[in-house]
Amino acid sequence: MSPSLLAISYFFHLIATVLWLGGLALLVLMVWPEARRALSESPALYAFLNRLRKRFYPLTNFSLFVLVLTGLFQMPADPNYMGVFDFSNDWSRLILLKHIAIIGMVICGLAVQYGVVPALERTSLLVERGKGDPADYERLRRREVRLTWANVALAALVLAFTAWATAI
Ligand code: HEM
Predict the structure, then answer these.
(1) Pocket around ligand 1: residues whose beta carbon is below 6 Å from it?
(2) Where are the domains of the chain?
(3) For 101, how many CA atoms within 13 A lie in the half-sphere containing its CB?
(4) How far away, in angstroms, is 13 Cα from ligand 1 center?
């Protein structure tokens, strides 16, 4: 495998990691708490969070696509790679654990994007028009925050398994 092609693959693998995992961490550790403090429970907060979702979630989906593409390219290039479904060494077992954590991230992401966000946006519009129950919005928001924190924990596991695999 040409080292320059591998370097380009790692470059995009790392960029996609920074965008997705860095974005998740920034969201839960800074953006959401500060937006809530600055805008409290107001239509401005609902509008800001809706706009943020519309920009962030497509970026995470694209990052996942880039990570899978470059990851599939990088795997056979590693001397520890033994073949598809061959987990006979520590490296391949760690990459398997990494993939299981990634599947968890995808499930959480899909649950947020297709399970929670449509209902959140509908409820925020109803609440803005004085027709919806703010408690419904609050319940959905808590679910979005819980699922996103679960994604941050799984992301930390992905990086831990990767660091361990890279050290082998
Ligand atoms: C959330 C998704 C993922 C994240 C955050 C992630 C992150 C990373 C990071 C940070 C590295 C280290 C790169 C370096 O050493 O310079 C890496 C390496 C690697 N990744 Fe991923 N990755 C993800 C998905 C995938 C997928 C889906 C695959 C395979 C299909 C994959 C296969 C690999 C391989 C083979 C390496 C090289 C490991 C080694 O050097 O021993 N990754 N990944």
Answers:
(1) 10, 13-14, 17, 21, 67-68, 71-72, 74-75, 78, 95, 102, 105, 158, 162, 165-166
(2) 3-167
(3) 20
(4) 7
For residue 67, the ligand 1 atom closest to its alpha carbon is: 24
CA angle at 58 for the pair 138 and 65, rounded to the nearest 5°: 130
Per-residue pLDDT tens over the stretch 121-164: 999 888 888 888 889 989 999 999 999 999 999 999 999 999 99
For 45-81, give one letter per residue: b (16+ CB within 10 A) or e: bbeebeeebeebeeebeebbebbeebbebbeeebeee
Q: Which two tokens stand for residue 49?
A: 């969070």
Q: Which residues touch 59 (CB under 8 Å, ≥6 apart)?
A: 19, 20, 23
Distance 71 CA to ligand 1 centre (A): 6
0.70 surpassed by pTM: yes
